[in-house]
Design goal:
By secondary structure, the protein is mostly helical. It has one domain. It has 7 helices and 3 strands, in the order αβααααβααβ. Strands 2-1-3 form a 3-stranded parallel beta sheet, with helices on one face. Helix 5 packs across helix 7. The longest helix has 18 residues. The chain is globular, with a radius of gyration of 19 Å.
Length: about 200
Amino acid sequence: VYSPRWQGKVKTISVNAMRQKNVTSIALLRDPKERLTSAWKSKVACDEADWNTDTFERQNVVDNLLLLANRSQGENCMHLEDFLGVLHDIHEAGNDWMLNWHFLPQQFGCLYHLAPHEWTVASTINDPKVASSLSVALGGPADVSMPYAHSTGRRTVDVSEKARRLLDYVTQEEYAVLGHHLASSESHKTEPPPVPGHAFWVP
């Protein structure tokens, strides 16, 4: 928001102001299971060479997860099933709202004050309406697409049956909130692109 690259076209405004019709608001959503798997690879995985894991930050992230799960310290990385088990305990303890933004359920983030249907566009980044709405709101063309500029490794993730059950558990509320906004781009139920010149806000 504060980068000069926005050229003053993006503003920080109140939640009530975001509900005005002359404001274009965009919430970028991610599939909860894909998001957690990606966050695990990026922040806590043990096989850092395979996943481009951030080893500089990893210890602090792991310590915080164990603290929220009411588990003893001592680990410096986590395999996927262990990570999901810790998340399970965090959810069971009611501490999921305290997770850092890499793991925080999306209903506790930018959707906490505004439900998905209250945004001009609330969708995944592969939905063409996201790039189009952003571009038009900034005075650009509607026929644009988002660039791809991040990767957490190319190896296939092996997910055990236990890990699948844990993933189901820790993401069930998130899926309930996001609903059809996670559907394929062909079936997104978003509004038409905004009118050029509208005030614009994105979290």
